[in-house]
Structure of Enoyl reductase (ER) domain-containing protein:
Amino acid sequence: MEALLCTRIGDPTIPISEASPIAVSTSHPVPEINSLTAVRVRICATSLNYANYLQILGKYQEKPPLPFIPGSDYSGIVEAVGGGVSRFKVGDRVCSFASLGSFAELIVVDQSELFLVPDGCDLVAAGALPVAFGTSHVALVHRAQLKPGQVLLVLGAAGGVGLSAVQIGKVCGAVVIAVARGAEKVEFLKSLGVDHVVNLSQESVLESVKKFLKSRNLKGVNVLYDPVGGKLMKESMKLLKWGAHILVIGFASGEVPVIPANIALVKNWTIHGLYWGSYKIHSPSVLEDSLNELLSWLARGLISINISHRYSLSEANLAFSAIKERKVIGKVMIVFEETSTRRSKL
Ligand SMILES: NC(=O)c1ccc[n+]([C@@H]2O[C@H](COP(=O)([O-])OP(=O)(O)OC[C@H]3O[C@@H](n4cnc5c(N)ncnc54)[C@H](OP(=O)(O)O)[C@@H]3O)[C@@H](O)[C@H]2O)c1
């Protein structure tokens, strides 16, 4: 089968060649059904997350031994099942996430890890749902318990997790403020009905949000969703209300922010460190309920997945470049079929 291998640590955006840390194998062994409850899925689409990029660069918290097949969330069709599989049959449309291995034509997992994709949901879109929307749903609904009318401030709002947070915020009835850089991202966020968008290429988060809050007679931000960190996070903290929740999601800026404990004390802030993938080990039912709710929202059209870039496996370096160059609005996908005709580039 075809699979992308990371053979050494390095920059995956350079053209795939001898010098590249990634290589496409066309003869990788097909994974065997290895238990009674195992399921083999033919992957239709797999999403790129910032973490996949960091992992090949050697900058992610989980460092698998080399060589490895990167990849996390995916969708596909059940191709074969073990003798004890009761929940799925050949031909079912499924999605899931793995710690590694989805940048390949086939993957074998236990039936307990798979989710049925409801009728009417686009299968490629379902492959982008688990990590990005799963992270934001657990963060906003389970951890911060976002309420209707509360003010949600989303940094990196046009990125993978950011755009999902914006949409989940709207579903929860929050007043959503989105922060992004550049006219194209801003226009897209406005088209989603976001209450206010800060264009970082033209204005500062502090001034823009203060002006908006004043115009709505609002006193401050209740929930800060932060996948960016750095200076932007530091500025945004000045907008938080008494009793606010800070969701520490990631550090796309490359800088881990410092949250002063004395200010957290005086202002009664709750700081949530959130590592979504670890729920699979420590609290799997939260994660399972969350993904089932998200799939039902997707089927009902309450959320949608914007895929700004699609590539084939052999174009994986271009997919990583789209992430590195901050071109993505929503998600970038590796699609195992129709990639040449359906690919769109910004
Ligand atoms: N905690 C968890 O469980 C979890 C789960 C998923 C993701 N994450 C983390 O969340 C972060 C975002 O992931 P993602 O998949 O949403 O990434 P993404 O799609 O690439 O989005 C990142 C966004 O961050 C903004 N950004 C600001 N400074 C940046 C910089 N120096 N370089 C790149 N982007 C920058 C960009 O927006 P502008 O260009 O508009 O500024 C971009 O849209 C990553 O750190 C990732 O590891 C954490």
Summary: Confidence is low (pLDDT under 50) at residues 338-346. The pocket of NAP is lined by residues 49-51, 131, 135, 156, 158-162, 180-181, 185, 200, 227-228, 249-254, 274-277, 323, 326, 328 (CB under 6 Å).
